[in-house]
Write a structure and sequence with these properties.
It catalyses: 2 GTP = 3',3'-c-di-GMP + 2 diphosphate. Its EC number is 2.7.7.65. Pathway: Purine metabolism; 3',5'-cyclic di-GMP biosynthesis. By secondary structure, the chain is an alpha+beta fold. The chain folds into three domains: about 170 residues, Beta-Lactamase, CATH 3.30.450.40; about 100 residues, PAS domain (Beta-Lactamase); about 160 residues, Reverse transcriptase/Diguanylate cyclase domain (Alpha-Beta Plaits, 2-Layer Sandwich). The strands form four sheets. A six-stranded mixed sheet has the order 12-13-11-16-17-18, with helices on both faces. Strands 2-1-5-4-3 form a five-stranded antiparallel sheet, sandwiched between helices. A five-stranded antiparallel sheet has the order 7-6-10-9-8. Strand 4 and strand 5 form a beta hairpin. The longest helix is centred in the middle third of the chain and has 45 residues. The chain is rod-shaped. The structure holds guanosine-5'-triphosphate (GTP). The site of guanosine-5'-triphosphate has 15 residues, from strand 11, helix 14 and helix 15. Guanosine-5'-triphosphate binds next to strand 11, helix 14 and helix 15.
Length: about 475
């Protein structure tokens, strides 16, 4: 059918409806607007056809001619004073002849020669946008009224198509925004997030993993078994695999992976099974926190001044020894510095502190297989010698006295030899309770103090030797 025959059909209402039944079913969501404009032009035989959409102040134009500037074409019509200053609200405007001269004066074929034209507004107000459909013919048509009715029907369907497209685009943009937000969250959250596939290849590795472990995802995947970088022990590796792949842990579990520099981390991990059956591992690096906890725990057991065990801790140790089911023998020494007040009085309190630290250093320097030193308070100390008897206790104090002589305390560069008295007690089996041990050792110490000081008195319960 040639163009003239096609134009004649547009003068017949029934034919126009028949043409529309071919075009309207093509307004499918997956088809592009450019294709749809092409369908309309082909079915209705127009020479110039375009659809313009104004969204957020921006004009998008969909047209058929590949080489033509559709944007300029649409602007010339939509920004024409006759359109902008139109005195009435309008939905559809038509010109039975002279459209080319009106909108495209002096332009080449077919623009300057266009005769009949229709501009139809497609209100898309819900989405803060407006669209226009423009059709123009080089010849005058038999009935502009019939064409206008046809275009109104087509415009309604076209508007439904555009609204659906807008809704899809809106949903897509929202999805993209959400996915972008999750991407940022994944990359920047101060939480370790990663995932490994069934072959052990790393598929996800967020910024925090890179920062904490020191490897990039590419570096990890260069290893034959990436997991072995973190867990060199095959048994632990198998536990990790079991926890991730076989029974993902929803509660946090502590693991100790290695980082790139070989240091061991303390981490907590939980595994989240995703809908595609992959597992996302979420972890927290608690190395610094654990370290701080260890230091705090240690500090709670240490005497600040002398760095030996504090009173509570040495008494706890003594109680543990007394409660031990094995009932292994051990010796207890209660030690008190002699005439310590004189050091404070002669050299000042700071010198007294220095003397206490020096005395503890000398005790710790003594050679004995296993022993604990604790400060009971002031210048009084308790020493527990494991698997020892009274003779060992005496040997220990003799050694300590020698050390104090060979390594005197220096006060204002003057050597001062510290002296101490000691009460020793040997404990065998589970025969005594804590208070009895302390009372007996104290009795022996008292004896040492009142029989000349600088000596060790050994006692067996109820019996001083
Ligand atoms: N510099 C210093 N002095 C302390 C500390 N704790 C207790 N003292 C002092 O230790 C002295 C203990 O004096 P005394 O109980 O009379 O004992 P001493 O002078 O050693 O006499 P004997 O035990 O009888 O030989 C007191 O002057 C306390 O103030 C401390 O942490 N630092």
């Amino acid at each position: 059918m040639n163009t003239a025959q096609k134009h004649n059909l547009l003068g017949d209402g029934a034919q126009v409806l028949r043409i529309l039944t071919q075009v309207i079913p093509q307004l499918l969501p997956h088809r592009s607007l450019q294709d749809i404009v092409g369908d309309i032009q082909h079915a209705l035989g127009s020479s110039v056809t375009w659809i313009a959409i104004e969204r957020d102040g921006e004009l998008q134009v969909h047209h058929t001619g590949e080489r033509e500037d559709g944007y300029a074409q649409a602007c010339q019509v939509l920004l024409h004073p006759r359109i902008i200053e139109h005195p009435y609200a309008w939905r559809i405007l038509s010109w039975s002849q002279g459209v080319g001269e009106l909108f495209y004066p002096g332009l080449d074929m077919p623009f300057g020669q266009l005769q009949t034209g229709i501009l139809c507004k497609l209100p898309l107000r819900d989405y803060a946008s407006t669209a226009w459909l423009f059709l123009a013919y080089q010849h005058t048509l038999p009935s502009i009224t019939i064409l206008k009715h046809g275009v109104t029907i087509l415009a309604d369907k076209l508007r439904d198509y555009l609204l659906e497209q807008s809704a899809r685009e809106f949903a897509f943009q929202e999805l993209q925004q959400i996915s972008e937000q999750y991407k940022i969250l994944f990359e920047r959250a101060p939480v370790l997030m990663n995932s490994f596939d069934r072959n052990g290849r790393c598929t996800l590795w967020n910024g925090e993993c890179e920062r904490v472990f020191g490897w990039t995802i590419d570096e990890i995947n260069q290893a034959q078994d990436p997991l072995a970088l973190f867990y060199p022990d095959p048994a632990i590796r198998s536990d990790v695999r079991e926890s991730v792949n076989t029974s993902p842990l929803t509660a946090m579990k502590e693991w100790h992976p290695l980082r790139r520099d070989g240091t061991m981390l303390t981490t907590l991990w939980a595994n989240i099974l995703l809908p595609d059956n992959s597992v996302l591992n979420i972890g927290l690096d608690i190395t610094a926190r654990k370290q701080a906890e260890r230091i705090l725990t240690l500090k709670a057991t240490i005497d600040d001044l002398t760095q030996c065990l504090n009173r509570a801790e040495i008494l706890k140790k003594l109680e543990n020894e007394l409660d031990a089911t094995t009932g292994d023998p051990f010796a207890v020494l209660m030690i008190d510095l002699d005439y310590f007040k004189r050091i404070n009085d002669s050299w000042g309190h700071a010198a007294g502190d220095k003397a206490l630290r020096h005395f503890c250093d000398c005790m710790r320097a003594c050679r004995f297989p296993e022993f604990y030193v604790g400060r009971l308070g002031g210048e009084e100390f308790l020493v527990i010698l494991k698997e020892a008897d009274c003779d060992d206790a005496v040997t220990f104090t003799t050694q300590l006295r020698e050390t104090l002589i060979t390594t005197p305390l220096l006060l204002n560069e003057q050597p001062v030899t510290l002296s101490f008295s000691a009460g020793a007690l040997a404990v065998k089996g589970k025969t005594l309770i804590l208070s009895q041990v302390l009372t007996e050792a104290d009795k022996a110490l008292y004896q040492a103090k009142h029989t000349g000081r600088s000596r060790t008195v050994c006692v067996r319960p109820g019996d001083i030797c």
